[in-house]
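Page 37, continued from 36.
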């Protein structure tokens, strides 16, 4: 059987860093590109970004609830025109904060006008995607990086400011203090060109083997009757 891209990436990481070798033995090879939306966003990358923005600073369960209200009000998977038709007042009534509602509407305006096209960013570099997305008010670096990994399947993205990434680094390298985003980014330079895989493994290490680690995966599992401590 030929090696998968994931197995090759994890072999490189494990060979370069004993911590990753140990984590691969314990947790396997998580797919950094798996998108846990329960089918909500379909094939729409615009809708995926709607879910990313909706989920900022709230639980995955709450994000699904609000997104589902927006989708219902949109008549299906939300597109730019549907959001613009709803407007800020209706979006806020559906559970979005004012900041998120305005951010989604600005994204929808740019998508409708063609100044950004979330459905056709494959030819852009990572930096170009991040610049285009973060130029939209309401889209921060974390959401842009999540889009790069989950939707565009880019292999070398490390969200160094992510609290869970930094907590995992502190635990696995037995650091005295949780690293700053800058320190986390510096440590991760050695993991190029597979930092998306390193991030997936670090996130995975925060939960016991066999238990979902991604917050959206956990929320979906709970809806299906599973529970976790």
């Amino acid at each position: 059987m030929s090696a998968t891209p994931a197995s090759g990436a994890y072999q490189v990481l494990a060979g370069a860093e004993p911590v990753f070798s140990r984590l691969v033995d314990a947790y396997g090879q998580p797919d950094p590109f798996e998108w846990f939306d329960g089918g909500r966003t379909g094939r729409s990358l615009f809708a995926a970004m709607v879910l990313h923005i909706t989920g900022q600073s709230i639980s995955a369960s709450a994000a699904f609830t609000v997104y589902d209200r927006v989708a219902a009000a949109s008549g299906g998977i939300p597109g730019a025109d549907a959001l613009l038709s709803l407007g800020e007042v209706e979006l806020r009534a559906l559970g979005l904060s004012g900041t998120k509602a305005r951010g989604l509407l600005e994204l929808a305006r740019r998508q409708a006008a063609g100044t950004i096209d979330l459905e056709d960013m494959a030819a852009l570099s990572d930096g170009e995607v991040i610049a285009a997305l973060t130029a939209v008010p309401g889209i921060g670096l974390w959401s842009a990086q999540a889009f790069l990994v989950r939707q565009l399947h880019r292999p070398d993205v490390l969200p160094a400011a992510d609290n869970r990434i930094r907590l995992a680094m502190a635990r696995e390298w037995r650091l005295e203090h949780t690293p700053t985003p800058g320190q986390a980014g510096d440590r991760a330079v050695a993991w190029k060109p597979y930092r998306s895989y390193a991030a997936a493994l670090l996130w995975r290490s925060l939960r016991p083997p066999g238990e979902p680690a991604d917050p959206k995966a956990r929320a979906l599992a709970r809806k299906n009757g599973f529970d976790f401590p």
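DSSP finds twelve helices and no strands in the chain. Flag for discussion at group meeting. Residues 45-150 form a domain with the Endonuclease III; domain 1 fold (CATH 1.10.340.30).
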